Structure formats: structure tokens, C-alpha cells
Recover the amino acids of this structure.
């Protein structure tokens, strides 16, 4: 069996190489039937594309062995199905070596950076969509000006005004700390606010709506994450400051000239391992503040903050997209049904029965006896 020519490795993309091979076979024989088989062996996908010429039982088969960073291929001509007889010949054979998609030094996948950037874009797009929906609802309910210029003016009037030294400006000046959004959040629990000020508070809660984990199980107490430690520190600081909501706590920090932003800082404790957060707001704490603000202001504006309006605004501001379920795939024995997840009680029952049935005792004669053979075992 002669191998015509030599095939030097070339930096061809994988999909281009598949196309070249397909066209190569298509040029040698007229396709009348295409059969694609996929088998898994040695953690690699082996793909066969079989073609029948329609003249007798002659068949040309293209075998492709795809590895982690290599691709081998061979085109053979056989009488009938491959391996059905010893008659046949190799028409062409070759291999391609390509990168395994990892950084040479660190070994990290090249897809990590793309995945991180894609996740950032998705979070940004979802935030913008949620913000636009909330702004539209607030405008319809009369809690936000319909004019864009008026909305900008409202933002300027409720901005967190700071002096050159970093502390609050004198009371009464535009943008001073008493009329900042944090001041409005603190006053909303005890004082009457205008409808637009209420909308500004709710809009700010949507912008900084806290952290919520999607994990089904929490970590152990001795392995708490940085965010969880920051959430616990925030709770302790709020109890110490006698603040009922995060808005009151942040307003108190601004009155003291402290920052209201959450930042990673070097830990100073003896058991510190890395940087940590002084405080970190949780989603549950922001949801509680949303409910308290709406409940307090509903007494002054019952026509605006009805139960239906509050429920609609809350659903928009704190909407959390559910995780996509994992597709288990088709059953190996019944292709019309899906596989059961491993956490399903029926699968767990099957697994227990299977383990028990496979138990065996090895005697002194080194012969394994199944537990079902009770007489021999006893």
C-alpha cells in the first residue's frame, strides 16, 4: 500500500481542515450516501465518514482521530464495510499538530479571558435593561419626571456633595449631604418625601442592590468567603450604629466624612490571609430597606404606592435570572427519554441497589462469591 506524497503540518484552522478533507474525498468519488458514526475511545472522538460509490461494494472511508492538540486522518478504499475483508488500500494519510488552546507558561485556557469579558457584557446589558424598565415604571406611576432634563436636575440635586477636604458641604447648598440620595434613604423611614424623591431612592436601590449568591449550598463556617465576611461585618456595624437600614448606615458614615463605597482593603488581623471588605451589602438587606421605605411612604402617598405598584417595582428592581438547568442528555437504553439527574431519588435508589448487588466476598481460595449466593457465603 503506497502512501502518495508527504503531508507537512500546516497552521490550518480545524474547521478549514475538515472542509479540505471533505472536498478531497468528494473529488475522488461521487457521493450517493453519507453515514456518520461517532465513537468514544481513549478520551478522544473518532469520526468516520463513509461513502458508497454505488458501483458494486467498493467503499471509501475517511477516518479522523481528533485529540487534544493533534488530528490524524486516513482515507482508505475497501471492498464493502471497513474491516469486513482483508482487501483494501490506503489512498492518503496524514496528521496535523495544533495548539491545545492553553497558555504555554500558566497552562490556563485561552477561553478564560473571552469568557470573563462575555460575562461582564451580559451583566452590563442586563443591568441596563433592568434600569430602563424600572425608569419606565417609575415614570408611569408618577415617581420620576417624564422629562429627561428634569431627571438630570433631580440627580444633581440629590448628588452626594463633597467639599474639597472630602467632608460634606454646608447644609442648604445644592448637592449637600442633607439632600443626598443617602440622606433621602435615611429620611424616608420617618419623614414625608416628594414623589420624585421617593423615585430617586428606589432608583438608587436598583443601582446598588447588593450581593446574592446563586449557590445552593453555603460554605462551611471555617471557610467563609470575603463577601460573606463583609456582610457579617456590615451587620455588626449597623447594630453598633443603631441603623435600621443600610441607607441610614451609609448616611451616618458620610456625616463622619467616611467613604460609602465598598473597597478591598488589606486585612490587619493576626489571622488575615489577604485583602477583605470592611462591609458588604447583601441583597436581603436591600430588599428589606425597599419594603420599609415603601411601607413608610405609603402612609403619605397611598394613591401612588399601592400594593400592585410596589410589587411591580420590587419585581423589576430585584429580578434575578434563574440558573439554566443542566441538560442530562438521552438515555442510553431508551433514546426517547432523558437521563435522570444524579440527584434524583430514583437514580439514588438504583445506585444503592447496584452497589449492593455488586458486593462480593473473597474467601481463602481467592474466589469471589456474590452475596446472592447465600449458601456459599454462609
Amino acid at each position: 500500500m503506497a502512501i502518495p506524497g508527504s503531508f507537512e503540518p500546516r497552521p490550518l484552522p480545524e474547521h478549514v481542515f475538515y472542509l479540505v478533507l471533505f472536498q478531497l474525498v468528494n473529488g475522488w468519488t461521487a457521493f450517493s450516501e453519507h453515514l456518520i458514526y461517532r465513537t468514544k475511545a481513549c478520551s478522544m472522538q473518532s469520526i468516520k465518514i463513509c461513502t458508497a460509490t454505488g458501483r458494486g461494494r467498493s467503499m471509501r472511508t475517511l477516518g479522523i482521530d481528533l485529540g487534544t492538540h493533534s488530528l490524524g486522518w486516513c482515507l482508505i478504499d475497501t471492498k464493502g464495510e471497513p474491516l469486513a475483508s482483508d482487501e483494501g488500500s490506503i489512498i492518503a494519510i496524514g496528521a496535523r499538530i495544533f495548539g491545545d488552546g492553553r497558555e504555554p507558561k500558566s497552562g490556563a485556557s485561552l477561553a478564560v479571558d473571552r469568557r470573563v469579558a462575555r460575562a461582564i457584557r451580559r451583566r452590563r446589558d442586563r443591568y441596563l435593561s433592568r434600569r430602563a424598565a424600572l425608569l419606565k415604571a417609575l415614570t408611569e406611576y408618577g415617581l420620576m419626571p417624564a422629562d429627561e432634563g428634569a431627571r438630570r436636575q433631580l440627580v444633581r440635586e440629590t448628588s452626594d456633595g463633597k467639599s474639597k477636604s472630602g467632608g460634606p458641604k454646608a447644609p442648604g447648598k445644592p448637592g449637600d449631604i442633607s439632600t443626598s440620595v443617602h440622606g433621602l434613604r435615611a429620611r424616608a423611614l420617618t419623614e414625608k418625601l416628594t414623589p420624585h424623591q421617593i423615585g430617586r431612592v428606589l432608583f438608587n436601590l436598583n443601582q446598588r442592590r447588593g450581593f446574592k449568591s446563586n449557590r445552593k449550598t453555603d460554605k462551611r463556617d471555617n471557610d467563609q468567603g470575603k463577601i460573606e465576611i463583609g456582610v457579617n461585618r456590615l451587620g455588626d456595624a449597623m447594630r453598633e450604629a443603631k441603623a435600621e437600614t443600610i441607607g441610614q448606615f451609609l448616611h451616618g458614615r458620610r456625616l463622619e466624612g467616611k467613604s460609602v463605597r465598598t473597597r478591598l482593603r488589606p486585612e490587619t488581623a493576626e489571622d488575615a490571609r489577604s485583602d477583605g471588605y470592611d462591609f458588604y451589602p447583601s441583597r436581603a438587606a436591600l430588599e428589606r430597606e425597599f419594603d420599609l421605605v415603601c411601607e413608610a411612604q405609603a402612609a403619605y402617598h397611598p394613591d401612588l404606592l399601592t400594593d400592585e405598584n410596589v410589587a411591580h417595582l420590587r419585581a423589576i428592581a430585584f429580578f434575578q435570572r434563574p440558573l439554566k438547568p443542566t441538560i442530562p442528555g438521552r438515555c442510553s437504553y431508551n433514546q426517547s427519554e432523558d437521563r435522570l439527574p444524579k440527584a434524583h431519588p430514583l437514580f439514588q435508589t438504583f445506585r444503592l441497589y447496584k452497589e449492593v448487588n455488586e458486593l462480593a466476598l473473597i474467601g481463602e481460595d481467592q474466589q469471589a462469591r456474590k452475596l446472592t449466593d447465600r449458601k456459599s457465603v454462609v
Confidence is low (pLDDT under 50) at residues 1-12, 24-55, 374-378. Residues 111-140 form the longest helix (30 residues).
